[in-house]
Amino acid sequence: MAAETSIQLTQSDELAERIRARIQDERLTDGAFFMTEADLAEEYDVSRTVAREAVSRLVAIGLLEARKRLGLIVRRPDPLRLLQLGLPSLFDSDQDIAELSMLRYVVEMGAVDLAIRNGSDEQCQLLCELAQEMETAIRSHRPEKISELDIAFHSLLLQMTSSTLIAGMQRVLVNFFDTAYQDYQSDAATGERMIWEHQELAAAIRDRDSNRARTMMQMQSRFWLDQKPTDSK
């Protein structure tokens, strides 16, 4: 029975890949009708069980939607949703959180030049205003407001790249680290560092100074790259 299950899963994986390739090759758009599950089993000469397993894999990643009495509908997968759904399972692993820290570092460092190139003057001004608001919140000892402004600051920075995917990934990652490092802004020295780094980063982007902006992003990123996550269980 175990061997049979293993073969069945392999067939399902292969069929899922063939369906994915077909959707891509035929350039089927979001909302297009694909076929029914029964038609799928017949056309690819597989059992209904194998067809169902293959469809389940593609439904899970958002490439297909199964509708009763209609059949399979092509959908456009949302990679950000998949990332967001998968992140909670990584909270218990320091190694995985370290990998996510490096991913955030790469996303934010790579975004600096794009933000400088594509961001509007109005967005640059808003970034500076958020940095000033963060100073007020830190000096007033308002942790929840600090967290809210930090997320708003970094989300705006990524929006300035003009990339929906990058901006969306940033929101997912920043919210993740906001939960994983809930007390990172609690000491006075850290608060002063945050004020200076955010204001300097905002000013460098406003002045369209890529070298200074990258330097400030490196300094800011170094802190949370070195942190240990709090107990999130």
Keyphrases for this structure?
233 residues, mainly alpha, Arc Repressor Mutant, subunit A, 2 domains, two-stranded antiparallel sheet, transcription, DNA-binding transcription factor activity
Q: What's this entry about, in short?
A:
This is L-lactate dehydrogenase operon regulatory protein. With 233 residues, this protein is mainly alpha-helical.
Secondary-structure map:
Elements: H1 2-25, H2 37-43, H3 48-60, E1 64-67, E2 71-74, H4 79-86, H5 94-118, H6 121-139, H7 143-159, H8 164-180, H9 188-206, H10 210-225
Antiparallel strand pairs: 1-2
Helix pairs in contact: 1-3, 2-3, 4-8, 5-7, 5-8, 5-10, 6-7, 6-9, 7-8, 9-10
Q: Which segments are poorly predicted (pLDDT under 50) over 5 or more consecutive residues?
A: 1-8, 228-233
H/E element sequence = HHHEEHHHHHHH
Number of DSSP-assigned strands: 2
End-to-end distance:
37 Å
- Assigned CATH architecture of the largest domain: Up-down Bundle
CATH superfamily of the largest domain: GntR ligand-binding domain-like
Share of helical residues: over 70%
Rg for CA atoms: 23 Å
Mean pLDDT: 83
Tell me the name of the CATH class of the largest domain.
Mainly Alpha
Query: What is the molecular shape?
Result: elongated
Total domain units: 2
Which sheet architecture does the biggest sheet show? Answer: 2 strands, antiparallel
User: In which order are the strands of the major sheet placed?
Assistant: 1-2
The total count of helices amounts to: 10
Q: In terms of structural class, how would the helical and strand content be classed?
A: mainly alpha
Any idea of the CATH topology of the largest domain? Four Helix Bundle (Hemerythrin (Met), subunit A)
